Amino acid sequence: MKASVYYSKNDIRYEDVEEPEIGDGDMLIKMHSCGLCGTDIHKAQHQTVTGPIILGHEVSGEVVKVGKDVTRYRVGERVVTAIHVPCFNCHYCDRGFFTLCDQFKKTNLEPGGFSEFIRIPRQHVEHLTHRIINSLDWDRAAMIEPVACCLHGLKSSNIHPKDTVLVLGSGTIGLVSAQLAALKGASTVIVSDLSRFKRELALKVGVTHAIDPAKEDIETRVAEITQGKGPDVVIIAAGVSSLVSQAVNVVRRGGRIVVFSPFDKNPVVEIDAGRLFRDEISIVGTYSLTPYDMKEAIEIVEKTKSIRRT
């Protein structure tokens, strides 16, 4: 089969590789769509994985082969899956923190979605794989995984109806988070991004205000929009660590800051820590998704038009 194989930062080859073999509990999926996640770009640019390896995990495809132990799925069915599976019985899983499970990051899709076929391992078949309706196009179906990641993050934000939400960074994660915030009842959704294209796209998918940080002071502009009160929720969806300081400065009293970025460069920042006590603001990190987020994301993507491709 053909695949896009990552060897190193400047060496990605489109070449022939062996079609994966499946075990008794596995499935073979013919790929129809695979999104390019920021995590894939991060792995390639920062060389956090060793090649040769096939990346890609925002996948949708068709079942073409099932192992003898697989009874829930049949050849020809349309499915989506995700990358990491928790163990469901450790200290973290017992407390609902599935993404902190020691097994979680050890599980993977190999080969990844930038290939003609992928093997879905037994544990993924059992816990992370789901059918999708026939009317859902493949590209939109591949958005289910990032939507699930954003849902996972938004659960920490505790968005209420009529809240104001500020999203710093309007790539895929930022734009999906903004759309989900609106879907959950936020009346004002603000994004900030250097890219004119992304700002214009944000306004097309329901964002109420878009800020160009190169021309406008974010803190001043946000204060104008919120009449000096600040946003109830700030979502950081860009890899610039100084945004944490900015978020602490602008968030409303009692507000929540959700960090959805690895901050590989300059991760140490200075913040006004007094606001944590004085104004009861909170800062929380978020990573990936849980099996339960996948189910919710499928329902949203299949049943609403609120989440549009970005």
**DSSP strand content:** 15-25%
What is the level-2 CATH architecture name of the largest domain? Answer: Alpha-Beta Complex
First-to-last CA distance: 29 Å
H-E string = EEEHEEHEHEHHEHEHEHEHEHEH
- Proportion in helices: 25-40%
CATH superfamily of the largest domain, by name, is: Medium-chain alcohol dehydrogenases, catalytic domain
* Largest sheet, spatial ordering of strands: 10-9-8-11-12-13
Number of helices: 11
**Radius of gyration, taken over Cα atoms and rounded to an integer in Å:** 20 Å
Total count of domains:
2
What is the mean pLDDT?
Answer: 96
CATH topology-level name of the largest domain: Quinone Oxidoreductase, Chain A, domain 1
Sequence-ordered SSE layout with sheet pairings:
Layout: E1 2-8, E2 11-16, E3 27-35, H1 38-46, E4 58-66, E5 78-81, H2 91-94, E6 117-120, H3 122-127, E7 130-131, H4 138-141, H5 144-157, E8 164-168, H6 172-183, E9 188-192, H7 196-204, E10 209-211, H8 218-225, E11 233-236, H9 242-250, E12 256-259, H10 274-278, E13 282-285, H11 291-303
Parallel strand pairs: 8-9, 8-11, 9-10, 11-12, 12-13
Antiparallel strand pairs: 1-2, 3-4, 3-6, 4-5, 5-7
Helix pairs in contact: 5-6, 5-11
Enzyme class: oxidoreductase
Keywords: Metal-binding, Oxidoreductase, Zinc
Domain Enoyl reductase (ER): 9-307
